[in-house]
Structure formats: C-alpha cells, structure tokens
Amino acid sequence: MNRMIFVNLPVTDLKASTEFYKSIGFKNNPQFTDDMGACMVWSEAINVMLLTHAKWRTFTNRPIPPATSSEVLLALSCESREAVDEMNKAASANGGTADINPVHDLGFMYNRNLADPDGHVWEAMWMNPVAIPSGN
C-alpha cells in the first residue's frame, strides 16, 4: 500500500466546507463521507478529512482553536502560477479568505496564502525546480 496522509480538520459547517474544498480543486470521496465528515482528495496520497465538531471530539478532548489562530500552514503544489491565482480567487469567492499573508514571488517559486471558512491556512504554491538558483 502506498503511504498516504489524511489531514483532519474540525469544521463548523460541513456542507459549506465541502463545497469550499471542491471549489479550490479537491474531489469528494463518498466512500469516506457521511453527515459527520467528508473526505476531500487532493491527490492519490493527500486527503483532507473535514469533521464536524461532534466528530472531532471523538478523536481528541483538546480545544478547537479559534479561526483567528494558525496551528499549521499546509502547502499545496499547483501546476502553474495561474493555477495559484485561480485557487486564491476561488477561495475568496467560496467562503474563504485570499491573501491572508503577503504574496511571495521569487521567480522560480510563487505562492499565495488563503484560509478556509474555519480559518485553516493553506498555501497555494508553484515551483520550477530547474530555475532554482544554485546554492538554495
């Protein structure tokens, strides 16, 4: 079996969060989706589990951080600079917040940060490995 990652996120509105993640390029896996959670697929190895607060509490008693905090920044690779811009635009149009941090453009790498409706932070990024300056 290939190694995979399942990022689990607590969400306040499962339907809205599912639609948000679809809008930025994730696909829903109905096999692992019900009224308490939704499995959103980025790639064969990367999945995001959107969990209602009630479901989240079955995994941990630790408090759910407020939407204004940042517990982690997760980066998603995109196929082009334009795809990074499109993801940010889709986030903003579907309940998220675009450009929560300054845009970074290093020529060989370009990224923009966004937040989902619950404040979880994502970085849409594109990189051209052959253009990385030597010494990096």
Automatic annotation (TrEMBL):
Protein name: Lactoylglutathione lyase
Record InterPro entries: Glyas_Bleomycin-R_OHBP_Dase (IPR029068), Glyoxy/Ble-like_N (IPR053863), VOC_core (IPR037523)
Record organism: Halothiobacillus diazotrophicus
Domain of life: Bacteria
GO molecular function terms listed in the Swiss-Prot or TrEMBL record: lyase activity
Keywords for this protein: Lyase
A Pfam family hit: Ble-like_N
Domain VOC: 3-127
